[in-house]
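Incident log, structure service

09:12 report received: a user says their structure output differs between two submissions of the same chain.
09:20 pulled the input from the user's history:
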Amino acid sequence: MKQWIRNIFNWKADHPVSFYLTDFFFRKLLRQNADVRWPVHFTSTIRAGINLKAGEGTFPGDSPNNYIDATNGVEVGAYTNFGPNVSVISSNHDFYNNAVLTDAPPVKIGAHCWLGSQSVILPGVCLGDYTIVGAGAVVTKSFAEGYCVIAGNPATILKYLDKEKCLAAGTGPLK
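09:34 re-ran on a clean worker, output below:
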């Protein structure tokens, strides 16, 4: 019966049914994160969710305490995962008037990426496919080539990944 319900509503098997019931309560009834088109953990906040685009198999905000500010746009590729407490910030305040948000290019995160717990992605950053962001990293610049492990504050490349191994191990097509 549970599997039948999961199939009808397209619910992921790795989330308990209670996750989806809680999501319904907070997103549909209380209208928290209401402009997001997929289930979001009730402790996560997505600002300007209409500007958040996610690829197949990607559900930004489904981990606890994610903060995603998509004011200037956030694009996330297919099969990318967010750990708990991840922040993705696409805008900043004006230096002289903090009531005004500044324009910035959208944040772009590639396919098959993993953002470790408590990592922070700042405005205008572009991460290529198969980029692993270490826990607690602060990403202030782009790593558009991808296929790497980055960590630190500010984030730097710790290791390059074998592109062929990444593509062979991928869980789905790149989108």
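09:41 both user submissions now match this output. Likely a transient worker issue. Closing.
09:42 reviewer note: The helical segments are 2-9, 17-29, 163-169. The radius of gyration is 17 Å.
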